[in-house]
Design goal:
The protein is mainly alpha-helical. Helices cover 73% and strands 1% of the residues. The protein has 2 domains: 199 residues, Growth Hormone, Chain: A; 203 residues, MFS general substrate transporter like domains (Growth Hormone, Chain: A).
Amino acid sequence: MEHRTKRRLTNITIGLLFLFSGIEYAVILPTIWAYLQTLHAEPYFLGLGLSAFSFSGLIAGPIFGHVSDRTRRTKSIILIANLFEIAGNFMYFMGYSKWLLLGSRLVAGIGTGAGACIFGYLTRSTTTEERATVFAVVMAARQVGLLIGPGFNLFLRLCNFNLGPFEVNKYTSPGLFMCFMWIILQVIIIFMYYDLPLVSKHHSQKTLISVEEEEPLVYDDDVNYAAAENNRYGSINENEKLPVPPTSEMDGENSTVDEYRYIPNGHIDEDHKTNDNSFHNFSAAKEYLREEVVVVLTAQFITLFNQTALETMVTPITQKYFNFGELENSLMYCICGVEVIVGFFLVRWLSTKFADRVILAVGLIICNISCIWCLIFLANPKGSFAILLSEFVVGVFLQILGLPFVAVSQVSLFSKVTAEKTQGFSQGFRRSIGGIATILGPMWAGGLTNNLDIMLGVMMGLLILLTIMMVLSYSYLVEPSPTQISAVNRRNVDNDG
C-alpha cells in the first residue's frame, strides 16, 4: 500500500475518533441527570459524574502522551485507550447503582487521554505551515459529533427491551450504543491506522539544511559565525537575526549561550547527533514556564473556563426568560453547532493566510466583545421578549464565533513553541489544563446563575488579563527561527566535543 494511502486512512481514523468523542458527549449528557435520579442519586452526583470524566482524562493525557514520546508509537496506545472507552460505556449501560455510573465516567474518561498522543502525532507528522489547518479539521470533526449526537437520542429514547439480565431503556441505551461505536472504531483502527514515519524537520528548515551543506563546519570564533548566519539569511526579520556577542563577553564559559533566548529542548536536540534520548535535556520548568508557553496555556484555560461557564448558564437563562423546553434548546444547540463547524473551516482557510498569533488576537477581540455585550444586555435583562431574544442571540453568536479562532490558534501555537520530541507529553499537559478549566467552569457558573453580573464580571476580568498578557508577549508568540535552532545546536555539539 502506498504511503499516501496509508496516511489518508490514518487521518480518516483520527477524524472518526474525534467524531465519536463528540457523539458520546452529545448522547450521554442530555439524559445523565434523569438516569441518576432513577438510581436515587443526590443532585451533587450530576456534577461529580461530569467532572469525573474530565478528571480521569486530565490525568491520563500526560501519561499516554509521555509513552508515545518514548515509543514513537500511537496505534497501540489508542487501542488501549479505546478499551477504557468500551469498558466505561458498558458500565454506564449496566447501571445498578449511582456509584457504578460514577465509576463508568471515570473509566471512560481515561480513554480521552489518547487525544494527547494524537495531537503529538499530528505535530510531528505535519509541517508548521499546515499544522493549524490540520488541527482545525480535527476539531471540526468533534463538533460534527456534537451536532449529530442528539439525533441518535431520537431513536435511543424508544428503546424498551431486555438484553439478558440488563434492561435497555432510554437511560441505559446511550451507554450500550457508545460501547458498540467504540468497538467498531477499535476494528477500524486495527485495519486502517498506521504508525507512519514522522516529519523530523520543520519545512522552513529545508533551505537552511541545504545551505549549511555548502558552508564550512567550523568558524574561527562566534562573532564570525553569527555574522555569517545573519548574512546568509538577510531576508529574515531583523528581530530574528542572531545576536553578535561583544568580544569582551566571550571569556566566560556560558556567556555566548546566554546571549540567546531559550530554545525548546526538542528543537535543540533536533540535529544533536550525539544524543538519542528525547528527554536527555528535558526540563519541565524551562519548557513550560517560558513567557510564550504560559500565555498559550493561559489562553487554553480561560477560554475553556468561560466557554463551559456560558454553556452552563444558557439553559437556565432560556428557561427563565424565554420558556424554552427540550425541543427549543435542542434546536438552539443544533444551530450553534453549525456555526462552530463553519467557524472551524473559516479558521482553516485563514490559517493559510495569517500567522497563529494573528488568528489568536482576532479570536480574543471577538471574545472580549461578546463578554462586554453579555455584561451590558444579559446580566440584567430588560425589555420585551423580542428584544431580549435578539440580545441573547447576538451574545451567543459572538461567543461561538470567537471560539474556533482561539481554540485552533492556541493549539497550533503551543505545538510550535514547545519541543517536538516531547510533544505527546506536552499536548497531554495542555489538555490537562483544559480539563481543569472544564471542571471549574460549570462549578463557577452553576452557583451564580442568579448573579450573572458577578459571573460575567469575573469572566470579563479573565479575558482582559489574557488580552494584556498576549499584547505584552506578542513578539514571543512565534516558532523559534531556523537560525536560532541551528546556532544552539552547533554550540551544543561544540561543547560536547
